Amino acid sequence: MTSPAPGTAAHSAHRKATALAFAAAVGGFLFGFDSSVINGAVDAIEGQFDLNSTVTGLVVAIALLGCALGAWSGGKLADRWGRTHVMVLGAVLFFVSSILSAIAWSAWDLAIWRFMAGVGIGIASVIAPAYIAEIAPAAMRGRLGSLQQLAITVGIFAALLSDQILATAAGSAANELWLGWEAWRWMFLVAVVPAAVYGILALRMPESPRYLVTKGREDEARTVLASVLGPDEHPDERIGEIRRSIAVDEENAELGSLKGDRFGLKPIVWVGIVMAIFQQFVGINVIFYYSTTLWQAVGFDESQAFLVSTITSVTNVAVTFIAIALIDKVGRRPLLLIGSAGMAVSLGLMAIAFTQATSVVGPDGESTIQLGAPWNGVALVCANAFVVFFGATWGPLMWVLLGEMFPNRIRAAALGVGAAANWIANFAITLTFPPMLDTFGPAVPYLMYCIFAVLSFFFVLGKIPETKGVELEDMAGEAYKRA
After folding, report:
1. HSE-up of 396 (CA within 13 Å, CB side)?
2. What's the pLDDT score for residue 336?
3. What distance in Å separates the CA atoms of residue 301 and residue 228, rounded to the nearest whole number?
4. CATH level 3 topology of 260-483
5. What is the CATH number of domain 15-205?
6. pTM of structure
7. Alpha carbon 299 to chain centroid distance?
8. What is the DSSP letter of 3?
């Protein structure tokens, strides 16, 4: 019997690695879906349970605190139970919470179920990049790691689309649709489908080879590595590298801990935390969570504003392919620097445009923001330019770097801390934008986001390591060079 040609074997192995990365990235789809599905339901929930704005804000934002808890605990559980077992846990939590959210009888129990969903999504947000980094060949790791962000953007789009379809079918999110249930309840129930798919895929996926080696299951690790590496890569050599990196960590026991001499944590852990915070503090979720308000301010009516929001989400999906195409060719640092500069210019111009906005009081006594020509066009173009620069750089690259920049021994735990910081920053931005908008108008918050984009440029320049093509076993040295 003849052996397959090296090129054929390499292609087959890379296809297997890609397939596993796609499967793991379904967790990112849940991440994006959950963060946006509430948007179509929030007004109906507010009316159904007769809520004030404070309680409504809590119901919307509490899932983000659950995400922070899930991200923080998910990394620790992954080191104890394994990556795939924790994926299953995240899928179960999201599946159950989707059903319970659909049958909620009050705002308070809905808040509890939304928090539970957040825990599941937080777990998925940590495990996907860690697993992808650990099964991907070094030459493909950036592209495959970017699938996490691609899945997030597709999830956002799917949630907006399903919300619109269900609301349109019922005439309104508050109207009954099927089985005596209002449309908003079906919006939550739809989420059981991707949750079930994620759980089934996780049950069929092989465990991370690096986790297997740490548990002494080297035969299993060898089988997994042989299936995802090309013929020029030898599983036994890779296992030896993993074993040596583990031995070094054990000789220097402190490397297995996140604790260090820089405010209680290792410097590289702080790099991950600050990077994760910057990704949210540039204000990307203001564009997605409050996009209808923004587009109505520049002159669109409500239905047009929803259409533009959907187009923006499609743009976010499309530009992620730019990162996938360039990340392993150009590298991480150059793309992040380009993204920071582009976001800073876009946000700065938006802040300038909104200094020209006026507040108009309608017949119902509610004041709305209006922006006349030519500044409405400037705001529209710059908001979409901001989405392009973010979606092609900081959106996917933060998750890629969190999955690969830490030494083996602390990777999952450090990724969990970084992801938790990202979710808490998301919560802070989501909660502070409405009062800032009411107090200062839109120009001040957009100026603040512009300042954070400028700061992120210098942070990348001074602190972010270039990890393109570096094997995970060699990552400790690269990571600490700039930390």
Report:
1. 35
2. 93
3. 51
4. Growth Hormone; Chain: A; (1.20.1250)
5. 1.20.1250.20
6. 0.72
7. 30
8. P
